[in-house]
Amino acid sequence: MSQVIHITALRQADDETLLKEFTQTGNQHYLSELYLRYSEMLYGVCLKYLENAEDARDAVMHIYQELLNKVPRHEIRQFRSWVYTLTKNYCLMQLRSARKHITINLEQHPMQSEDFSHLDSVIEKEAAFKRLEKCIEKLPTDQKNSIKLFYYDNKCYNEIAEATGMDWNKVRSLIQNGRRNLKICMEKNAGK
Predict the structure, then answer these.
(1) Got the DSSP string for the chain?
(2) What Pfam families does UniProt report for this protein, alphabetically (predicted)?
(3) What span, in angstroms and rounded, lies between the C-alpha atoms of 69 and 71?
């Protein structure tokens, strides 16, 4: 395509052509066209995960920034499925981040109480956490590393693949198998 970009040509170009032109020229018109093609799908994914229209709209706007940063660094074969996964992972990261920042009104929850039953649940959670740590250590090395990157370091599949040099499908498989193995291990050791 020439330096002068015609809107009609942009709209008629397939995803692969637009990706190629963007990565070669850095011209955001190509990426913008791709983004606009899938913006409704992205909004739907964000709304599904975030369950709030305003948060979903904000997330879709942030996804464009993610695209600017990540498209040039990745070999993308199918843009639609790639951007869907990127969006889903972005939303999951937002949800994880939000869970870390939960605030509690201390007036509603007294700091000290004569009733010590709440300590039982704290002790149970601590025991479960210790079992989980032991189960993680029993995983095969690749599964253990992928699980830690995903859950402890909040990395998405693409970032883990990039950091480890493994294929995206391999990372996904390691995390899924790791979660299944952790569940089995936790169930087996539930009474200990």
Answers:
(1) --SSPPHHHHHHS-HHHHHHHHHHH--HHHHHHHHHHHHHHHHHHHHHHH--HHHHHHHHHHHHHHHHHHGGGS--S-HHHHHHHHHHHHHHHHHHHHHHT----TTTS-S--S--HHHHHHHHHHHHHHHHHHHHHHS-HHHHHHHIIIIIS---HHHHHHHH---HHHHHHHHHHHHHHHHHHHHHTTT-
(2) Sigma70_r2, Sigma70_r4_2
(3) 6
**Domains of the chain (ranges, CATH numbers):** 7-100 (1.10.1740.10), 118-188 (1.10.10.10)
Q: Please state whether the predicted TM-score (pTM) of the whole model is above 0.70.
A: no
Q: Which residues in 18-44 are b (16+ Cβ under 10 Å) and which e?
A: bbebbbeeeeeebbbbbbeebbeebbe
Tokens coding 30 = 């190509």
Here the tokens at position 127 are 């025991």
Cα angle, residue 27 at apex, residues 22 and 30 outer, rounded to 5°: 55
Give the whole-angstrom CA distance, residue 71 versus residue 75: 8
Residues 6+ apart with CB under 8 A from 88: 45, 49
Tokens of 114: 């004569």
For 159-172, what is the mean pLDDT? Answer: 90
The residue type of 119 is: L
